[in-house]
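new request in #modeling-help
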Amino acid sequence: MVNPHWLVRNKGLLILLPSLLLTAIFVYGFIGTSFFFSLTNWRTLAVDLSLREPLWQTYTDMLAMPRFQADLRNTLVFTVLFIGLAIGIGLGLAILLDRQIAGRGFFRSAFLFPYALSFIVTGVVWRWIFNPETGINLFFDILGINQVLEAAGMDPLSPGWTTDPEVVLSVNQVLAHVWPSGMTFQIEWGIPIALIPVAIAATWQLSGFVMAMYLGGLGSISRQVRDAARIDGAGEFRMYRSVIIPMLTPITISTAIILLHVSLKIFDLVFAMSGVGPGFATDVPAIFVFEMMFKAARYNLGATASVVMLVASCLVIVPYLMHTFRSRET
Amino acid sequence: MSMRRGILWFILGLALILYALPVYVMVTNGFKDASSVSLATMWQLPGRASLGGFTEAWAMLSPNLRNSLVMVIPAALLSSIIGALNGYVFSKWRFRGSEVLFALLLFGFFIPYQAILLPLVRFLQWINVYGTLPGLVLTHVVYGISVTTLIFRNFYVNIPGSLVEAATVDGAGMIETFWRVMLPLSLPAFAVTLIFQFTNIWNDFLFGITVVPNPQAQPVTIALNNLSGSFSVDWNVVMAGAVIAALPTALVYIGLGKFFVRGLVSGAVKA
């Protein structure tokens, strides 16, 4: 006697089996292995899988490293700059295109175009645009800004962009005040100037994606809502600020989470554009992991940093996925 | 009203110019010849277009372009086919626990790949495909399954279950139903996943540089980065190389942008 449910379950499982097995090994097994490596003494080319004493020593060592502290600071600063810029500009573009206007489709495609390119291609180009010898800095001469400044007896503008080691708006004083025991900070906690060009390049690449997400949302807001707002006497600006943007909150949240996920693991763009930067001003955890694993042969340290990256990503993604799944079931 | 329209056009036009700047730099400097390309004249149009940069970049990058093609075609195809089968089961043949399995599978899409890199390299060495294109294809297929499954599942959910039921009443099995009923309807979903995977895999850098250390066997993104970091290569060649490396995904985007946007939205877990 054949039980159809039993059969369905097993046939379905059979189709899924290769994928489930591969995922079990390549995702969960490998994550477990990375975690295990992070607890071992394996820090040279010779494999040494004995556990460290104390077990979490590599984690405490890493957190005390100025370079890794710089990475954490850079991720934080980059994330805020990049998400703020990308959402602001993407929303702005979406609102501008949220109407009947000639060339709408063309503009939409043009702004989304950078998203189709690889971070390496764009990083290679942005590297030269933000090179202090050329690129943007030439515009200060072309547009006559420097001539005006010089005539006024001031220094001409020539920012160092990705080569500038300076960290501005340092909050170390404040941190020392509120958290006196936290004096182990070996870096300036502030905004590294060199990160700003990287955030601009990333914004250029992904603000079109943000625009596309918002345009999708705007398309689903019915005419009635807009008409009602207009009848209530709301101008264009008021209508967006008080009615439409609040209605787009779910899209803002999804988009911010996707961008956050991009910024937590950003690698190629920084790698091609500025590398680790002066004084690690543009170093990020993904580059740290790559160099420890494939250049310095500090395998346990690389694994440790990668586990920290994973945990950070999970803190963002897992609640989001759980929310998505739950809201779909109801 | 026309005043406002004018302002709108002005802002959009300005944004367009700003967005086009990197592409402008890439293309115009790629067409300069080695003697006229200089940092000081980066924003100027080439005096006369020269193909020298492209010829040289092509000579350097064509083996790697070939590697990228050899990698991306099977990887995109295989991951799409597997995704279609998985999505079919997860949408039309649900069983107790299948939603949990789906979530567990989907998780792979969201991890930073750094967290699996070292074991991956060791595993590929162990099964003897490390440093080879088949090893890279395997990697891209495995880590692509989650997103292709997601896209197909979301696509199949909207296909009426009565079609599947009718086929089963006719005596068709699970696979036969997929083959006869679902697959012919799946063309749009295949277009989305193939384009999504093509773009992602072509643009990949992390797996290429870690799984394939040999420059001869590396995909074009890694070769371009090496080209850009080398001091002996003229700048027009680097820019021409960037254009060449960008062209395949750019053409796919220009030609099939509609599907591209759809893939993007599916990839964004808009379930």
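bot summary: Residues 97 and 173 of chain A are 45 Å apart (CA to CA).
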